[in-house]
């Protein structure tokens, strides 16, 4: 089948792959003040991580690229909680749990001189449930005379306790050697990560909306795509395009251009190409054509970009063809079919005349910036506190679910986790999501709000 052959050919092209598997993740967990940050500093051998003498100072989860004996990994320092005596047991465990979920190996740090406290025990309980490799680091063992302090820690059931002094660096080598034995080659939960370079854009849309034309206009040259050239010239897989002084990598442009040579535009392969471009990109420009009604296929492609978790820009092409009547209907179609992505920047363009093509770059930047936005834990909880005080969850069957604490464990796109005492109504969840968008600027990015119910 000709489509399949062309597609296979595109997949074979190599050398331009902008993604590599993410390095494995090692998470450091433990209650405040046991020396996690000091240990992190020791491992990354720099002073980047802030060490506070005050216990419980708000500190978000921080990740660092790290290396040990020639092996790269991502080090995650968990510290984001607030000094709130009442909820601190829960919060320490909650934060640790999020980090553990995404980790390949966990280093559980406690104060070797203090021994296992009730908070430590709570974390251990959670760690057992997760069934991930855990190494037990007994910190603050600054001298050999103190080594005997660690023996009772065998009772925790986490295997051999590693005596370390993060302060002096003793024992950390043995700890890391042991951790490396459990660390897989690549992250099990991390997927692919970009290797740098220009930001990656997927220009997608149903056939005939003007993707190829827009690409030509943006690339600053009219390309004549002629059938007999196709066999002899190798189309680039990706193309570098400068918009408003910034370089962008438009991914899979061969897929955009090649469609023109295909005998029949099989929808299946078109969708496969769309999916592939989205997989490779950070931001999607979904192109729509204003001279025809918004179609199911348009909506499906937007949904694919949401499912892929990409930043989004909606571009309405063929604006030169728009008359007043069509414009009236277009606005209604947008209200009806695209209300769920009303947060996406909208750019009206004409690939034919080049009108407004300079609006695309700024829209891409806005979406990406918000896609990477991280709301500090303190700010998020201040926001949640005010919101819940002003609009408490309705009472259901004599019960009123409460939000205990919220955190944003990840970006690209932003993901929030709310710890609650019961299930929240879908309406209330939507309300929170809407207020998050109103309070913090999430123009151009999908956001996810998850719940974790605590009994
Ligand atoms: P975190 O809250 O778990 O990140 O703990 P920090 O790294 O901020 O350390 C808390 C306190 O313990 C700081 O005053 C550190 O200087 C101290 N500390 C950390 N590691 C050691 C160690 O190995 N020995 C001693 N004696 N003190 C340490
Ligand atoms: P693709 O299938 O999405 O790559 O779409 P093409 O770029 O091949 O364009 C499909 C058709 O729409 C071609 O005939 C283009 O000349 C035409 N077209 C593309 N953009 C515009 C535009 O802005 N205005 C008008 N009037 N026609 C356009």
Could you walk me through the main structural features you see in this protein, from its secondary elements to its overall organization?
- The protein has helices at 2-12, 36-44, 88-101, 118-130, 172-182, 211-218, 227-230, 253-258, 267-280, 296-307, 324-337, 360-371, 377-390, 426-439, and strands at 19-21, 25-29, 62-68, 71-77, 105-111, 134-139, 161-163, 192-194, 199-204, 239-243, 246-250, 283-289, 311-317, 346-348, 403-410, 415-420, 448-453.
- The protein has 455 residues and is of the alpha/beta class.
- It is elongated.
- Residues 7-17, 47-59, 80-85 and 222-236 have low confidence and may be disordered.
- It binds guanosine-5'-diphosphate (2 copies).
- One guanosine-5'-diphosphate binds next to helix 2.
- GTPase that plays an essential role in the late steps of ribosome biogenesis.
Distance between the termini: 56 Å
Q: State the oligomer.
A: single chain
Estimate the helix proportion, in percent: 25-40%
Number of H/I helices: 14
